[in-house]
């Protein structure tokens, strides 16, 4: 027999013979289906009295991590990601010496103009 403030192991404090759904009045809900680019359906539940403006157009799909939209025929497209660039690819994109010198000269010219206007 349990005595004092200790509960019986495995039981919840306040749990009775009724399930949680039988206690009180639950708000009515409406199920909204969303589809991601892979064809997976995601169902979200919203309060029935919620205005349409407050129901989001897109949600994130938990199975794929992609955005899911309400239009089954035209789901949001998968984001295009750039492939990994190697160091050599970045080296090839570097500017030539002439371009770098021109950029430096332009930056110095802008600084000189700002100093000239600030000193006046």
TrEMBL record:
Keyword presence, Oxidoreductase: no
HAMAP family for this protein: RbpA (MF_01483)
Subunit structure: Forms a complex with the RNAP catalytic core and with free principal sigma factors.
Full protein name: RNA polymerase-binding protein RbpA
InterPro entries given in the database record: RbpA_sf (IPR038638), RNApol-bd_RbpA (IPR025182)
Alphabetical list of Pfam families matching this protein: RbpA
Family membership: Belongs to the RNA polymerase-binding protein RbpA family.
Function: Binds to RNA polymerase (RNAP), stimulating transcription from principal, but not alternative sigma factor promoters.
Keyword field contains Protein biosynthesis: no
Keywords from the named record: Transcription, Transcription regulation
Name of the encoding gene: rbpA
Region named Disordered: 1-23, 53-83
